[in-house]
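Morning - FE2/S2 (inorganic) cluster inputs below, output right after.
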Amino acid sequence: MARINLDVNGKVHTIDADPDMPLLYALRNDVGLNNPHFGCGLAQCGACTVHLNGQPIRSCVTPVSAVGSGKVVTLAGLGTPEKPHAIQKAYVEEQVPQCGYCINGWIMTAAAPFQHIGILSLEFHVDKLSRPLL
Ligand code: FES
């Protein structure tokens, strides 16, 4: 066991954990978040996706010790009901979710480029992605 500080959604949490424990377990069991889900546990389905320093990662296969001083953002930290992230807003408007179990991975993966380039305009993103790559 080790004492580990995790910066999650802008708040530092100190937990006692095996350094090899998956980040997903720390987020769900120690930090108390329920939006990154356990699906396959093999980095295949994406249900556990969170951002680490703006990049999407599979938290089911990321040891909690690998986070270091990095900043973790989960679906809950992406936006709020009052001020959702552009991707969250689009998903609600278009009624995208089906059963909803893997929606965390869809949104966190789709939102990552926005975080990386700092652009929150869905229209900009769609415009760039809809053009042929020449
Ligand atoms: S639980 Fe399926 S990718 Fe992590």
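Note: The chain has a mean pLDDT of 88.

O.
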